[in-house]
Amino acid sequence: xxxxxxxxxxxxxKTFTTVMALVLRQRxxxxxxxxxxxxxETIKFKVAKSVGExxxxxxLTKAGFDxxxxxxxxxxxxxxxxxxKLPSRA
Length: 90
Known about the structure:
The structure is a single chain. By secondary structure, this protein is of the alpha+beta class. The chain has a single domain (about 1-75), classed as 2-Layer Sandwich (Alpha-Beta Plaits), CATH 3.30.70. The protein is built from 2 helices and 4 strands, in the order αβββαβ. The chain has helices at about 1-10, 45-60, and strands spanning about 15-20, 25, 30-40, 70-75. Strands 1, 2, 3 and 4 form a 4-stranded mixed sheet that branches. Helix 1 runs antiparallel to helix 2 (about 45-60). The longest helix has 16 residues, at about 45-60. It starts with a helix and ends in a 16-residue tail after the last strand. The relative contact order is 0.22.
């Protein structure tokens, strides 16, 4: 199911950065959320909405996951270089 969603998102031609493999369950809701990240400022709202609806209806519901919502959100990945450094071998 996730590979189908990822294949569709790649076919849309937008720069999707991630499809979260974990389905988040919210305490206040029984619905799960499938987040799909896209590079900031690369997709218009109407396109994101139609992509999310397609993934929900054509992929998730067809696979029996009709209680999961799709969230398209801006998500940039980068490596800052910060954090602990490995010791050098001298």
